[in-house]
Amino acid sequence: MTDMVKHPDYYTSGSKEVIDIAHEALTDDEFTGAMKFNIIKYTLRVGKKDEPQQEMGKVANYADYLGKHLAGKWEEGAH
Q: What pTM does this model have?
């Protein structure tokens, strides 16, 4: 079964996940802003679209991406 929080099939393009493509393509500030946006978006919609646990998993996931990015510990494909 597909992990709808960390690895939904529709977020993979070829052999790369969209998050890795975005990390490569965006500047540091742009990527940081994108992660902050997603944290806010998923926090505000908890219980309005998907199950609350799934939405909060997405919040945690984007917070983890942001933390790894800010710490300089980004590893492509390690998400």
A: 0.80
Other residues' Cβ atoms within 10 Å of the Cβ of residue 50? 16
Residue corresponding to tokens 């919040």: 59
Q: Which residues touch 49 (CB under 8 Å, ≥6 apart)?
A: 55
Tokens of 25: 């393509």
- 65 touches 5 (CB < 8 A): no
- One-letter amino acid at 72 equals G
- The per-residue pLDDT of the chain, averaged, comes to 87
Beta bridge partners of residue 17, listed in sequence order = 12
Q: Is the pLDDT of residue 31 over 90?
A: yes
Sign of CA dihedral 35, 9, 22, 73: positive
